[in-house]
Amino acid sequence: MSGPMRLSTGGDIDRSKPLRFSFDGRTMSGFAGDTVASALLANGVSIVGRSFKYHRPRGIFSAGIEEPNAILDLSDGKRHDPNCRATVEPLRDGMVLRSIHAHGTAARDRLAVIDRFQRFIPAAFYYKSFLWPSWRTYENRIRAMAGLGRLDPGARRGLVAEHHRTVDLCIIGGGPAGIAAALAAISTGKSVLIADMEGRFGGSLLFRDAEIAGMTGRDWAADAEARVRRDGAQVLTRTMAFGLYDHNAIALVERTEAGEKLWRIRAREIVLAAGAIERPVLFANNDRPGVMLAGAVLAYLERYAARAGARAVIATNNDGTHELATALRAAGAEVLVVDARKNDHVIDAIGRDRVEAVRLADGTQFDADLVAVSGGLSPALHLYAHAKGRVVWSKEKGAFIPRDRIDGLTVVGAANGSFGLELALVEGWRAGGGEADDAPRTTEPERVWSTEPAVDLARMTGRIWVDLQNDVTTKDIALARRESFSAAEHLKRYTTLGMATDQGKTSNVNGLAVLAAIDGRAMGTAGVTTFRPPYAPVSFAAIAATHRGELAHPVRRLPAEMQHRGEHAQFREYGGILRPAWYGAEEGAIARECLAARNRAIVFDGSPLGKIEIAGPDAPKLMDFIFYTRMSTLAPGRLRYGLMLTE
User: What is the mean pLDDT of residues 433-450?
Assistant: First the structure.
């Protein structure tokens, strides 16, 4: 075992390869196959950081890119990442990890005293408190306290490369729906690229029980990945699609041991199989370490043999937590299931530095060191929104789902609100070009995976966190509404709900539900916020890729540069080209040249001007399409300046 919460058997970790690392000065151990987060959990670390505003203790909350709390400073040899997301960072031997928003360590933060003054610093307090004598009086001190991590200018991120591909079909997501789409597409002869953020295919199949085509879900996913690779598809693992742009252009970043790779993909068709994100449950002090998403607790248990607690309370409103209760009991934990559909609610998490007990609505109190919460599922529609897709609230599915069909983009599986495994497989298979009757079959039982957020304002007392990273509570939302910030976008900016590096992945829907409840409106009528690229933070180094130094801004020279220098030309840069600015070093050289041009004659070197030959019957139409100015009316032998456009 590598820590007090590690099970002696199970998981995908390689116990023959122990790894040493440190966190906030403490030396710890893990195994190859761990993430930083799973290794910290296995070592019994409950506090991994401090909240942005109040410096409250924060623990690991999720197991994926949606993580709002476990963002650390990572040093690994020459590599330095001041904003490492522990839940998706593979553990490596010798890593040095530190909390980033604590003055001291995560466990002992000297600024924790700020939380005692919370009543004086509600949402948007800075707009009202720093007016006299001026904002600049306070700016430097406030900016020094803010921010997430410190950059090391001397650090290097290793290899940064750039690749371009054009494919018939690009599939985002390697879960069940994405795999089905890839299997169907390769049988039609299409060129296929499939990308997933995990190190291998499977998605939820990697930690949930399933049977597909007579195999376990894990075995089916592994077999499918091998088939897709064998049949010529481009497979990218540990790769995040962070932006979808005009004309089906997709930007992805791949993370390898050597460094990062930027991929620019043009696809005739895109299948979005990005899955869904589990929602938290709202109750007092739901930000304490030990409160985690139920799906994450199951993932850490099944994939990394890390048990997040010994006395667990599962607070849920859907059927998706059945496996977790069974798995925790099998791992030796005490389990209490609190199902809101049975009029049973957790109303408070009790403890100081982590959860020690929970209180139910009927006043009953239970000892607990883990609260696994599941308030439903939110489809990951960020890339759909990048393509200007609009969403609509589905009461039946308890989620925002795609409203419109976008040409060249098909949303499938949980991202489409189809949370059941069988339906996800069928949708993915059809999106890849297959017939629905030929889709892989599963024997999954009927389940209710998601329901509407239950917001009972009369029952919700105390400090209830909606946005964990930006410290936004239900009281902040109520304050914003009292001050007339009732539109979703206005609420976001006034309270900073959903504006952190996690972009509200676990907070936006609950925030809108609270706003709707305050107004007495139905869910979905309060509007939604707009998702913009990137899906999750991307390093500037990855975006710049190879365009650095001379490659970023190469010096371009005229063919006649030496002749110009022979005439004593003084060079300056114009439009990236080194060109003569004037001739001669004596005073009045520029004025003399202007007079010569007006009164006599000069020679103009036009060699840097672009020269593109365009031929064919539709050449004038193409020129008018490319240029902002009309070019088709240009007479032979004449010149016209034009502004050329990108897409």
Answer: 91
**Which tokens go with 220?**
């089916």
For residues 122 and 473, give the distance between their C-alpha atoms in angstroms, rounded to a whole number.
9
* Rounded CA separation 412/425 (Å): 9
Instruction: Check whether 335 has a pLDDT greater than 50.
Output: yes
Q: Which residues pair with 96 in a beta bridge?
A: 22, 75
Q: Which helix (H) or strand (E) holds 149?
A: none
Contact 432, 271 (CB under 8 A): yes
Question: Residue written as tokens 């899955």?
Answer: 275
Distance CA 244, CA 532 (A): 9
pLDDT in tens, 155-170: 766 778 899 999 999 9
Q: Compute the distance between CA of residue 377 and CA of residue 293 in angstroms, rounded to an integer.
A: 11
Determine the average pLDDT of the residues in 34-42.
98
Whether the CB-CB separation of 153 and 536 falls below 8 Å is answered with no
Q: Count the neighbouring beta carbons within 10 Å of the beta carbon of residue 165.
A: 16
Cβ–Cβ < 8 Å for 64, 88: yes
Strand order in the sheet with 334-339: 291-293, 370-374, 311-316, 334-339
Cα 579 to Cα 406: distance, rounded to the nearest angstrom: 47
Residue 463: what residue type? Answer: R
Q: Which residue has the tokens 């069974």?
A: 326
What's the CA gap between 618 and 612, in Å, rounded?
15
The confidence score (pLDDT) of residue 1 equals: 47
Distance from the Cα of residue 274 to its chain's centroid? 11
Q: Which two tokens stand for residue 468?
A: 């964990």
Angle of helix 508-519 relative to helix 488-495, nearest 10 degrees, comes to 110
Of 112-121, 518-527, 605-614, the one with minimum mean pLDDT is 605-614
Residue 87 has pLDDT above 60, yes or no: yes
Contact 412, 428 (CB under 8 A): yes
What is the arithmetic mean of pLDDT over 310-327? 96
CA distance 388 to 296: 30
Question: Rounded to an integer, what distance in angstroms lies between the CA atom of residue 175 and that of residue 217?
Answer: 10
Residue 109, amino acid: D
Contacting residues for 219 by C-beta, under 8 A, at least 6 apart: none
Tell me, rounded to whole angstroms, the distance of Cα 400 from its chain centroid: 18
Q: Can you name the residues that pair with 20 across neighbouring β-strands?
A: 29
Q: 195 near 238, Cβ under 8 Å?
A: no
Exposure class string for 622-643: b at 16+ Cβ within 10 A, else e? ebeeebeeebeeeeeeeeeeee
Report residue 573 as tokens. Answer: 């840069």
CA distance 77 to 96: 9
Residue 144's φ and ψ, nearest 5 degrees, are: -65, -30
Whether the upstream peptide bond of residue 534 has omega within 30° of 0, thus cis, is yes
45-83 pLDDT tens trace? 999 999 999 999 999 999 999 999 999 999 998 889 999
DSSP string, 278-323: EPP---BTTTSTTEEEHHHHHHHHHHH-B---SEEEEEESSGGGHH
pTM of the model: 0.88
Average pLDDT over residues 305-320: 97
For residue 86, with 0-12 CB atoms within 10 Å meaning exposed, 13-18 middle and 19 or more buried, which class applies? buried
3-state secondary structure of 433: coil
Least confident of 124-133, 461-470, 526-535: 124-133
Q: Dihedrals φ, ψ of 414, to 5°?
A: -60, -30
Give the other-Cβ count within 10 Å of 166's Cβ.
13
